[in-house]
Design a protein that fits this description.
This protein is an alpha+beta fold. The protein contains 6 helices and 8 strands; from the N terminus they run ααββββββαββααα.
């Protein structure tokens, strides 16, 4: 797959909606493609990580351990992303992600993101809001509207700390 396909893929990812075309292109250029065989583990719960992934082709299963047994909580396909909390805040991986079929993912690393934040500090605010909505959405209740703001502020603080901004 060539790099232009990466740009198209990333520009369709909601978390990167605030990026300019140029920023998306830069991020695509810094992304690394990995191909996983069916059943292969892409990330493991509890692992340290500082990158996120976008599914570029294929499908992955997101699994958490429930009473010692793996339980699938989501199946992600082309254009879906995972691992963003590790990229933005340095939190350990929250789940196992396993390829269900031959799957290509784009890995976006800490340095690539840091470069974007350095050139466009406003991205921290817009991205943290999207991440907070997603995190609160995992325990979604209509009355959680306030939680997004609180969560967003916490995430902004975490992002700034992790990327070394005051």
């Amino acid at each position: 797959m060539d790099g232009s396909g990466f740009i198209e893929r990333l520009s369709a990812v909601d978390i990167f909606a605030p990026l300019s075309t140029e920023e998306t292109a830069r991020l695509a250029g810094a992304s690394v493609s990995h191909v996983f065989a069916p059943g292969e583990i892409v990330i493991r719960a509890g692992d340290e990580g500082s990158s996120m992934f976008v599914v570029h082709g294929g499908r992955v299963s997101v699994q958490i351990t429930d009473n010692g047994k793996p339980r699938t909580v989501a199946v992600l396909k082309d254009g879906d992303f995972f691992g963003e909390m590790a990229l933005f805040t340095g939190e350990p991986r929250a789940a196992n992600v396993v390829a269900l079929e031959e799957t290509e993912v784009l890995e976006i690393g800490h340095q690539a993101m840091k470069h974007l934040f350095d050139t466009n500090p406003d991205l921290v605010d817009s991205l943290s809001h999207i991440i907070a909505e997603r995190k609160v959405g995992l325990n979604a209740k209509p009355e959680n509207g306030d939680n997004v703001e609180v969560e967003s502020e916490g995430i902004i603080a975490s992002i700034k700390r992790f990327f070394g901004f005051d």
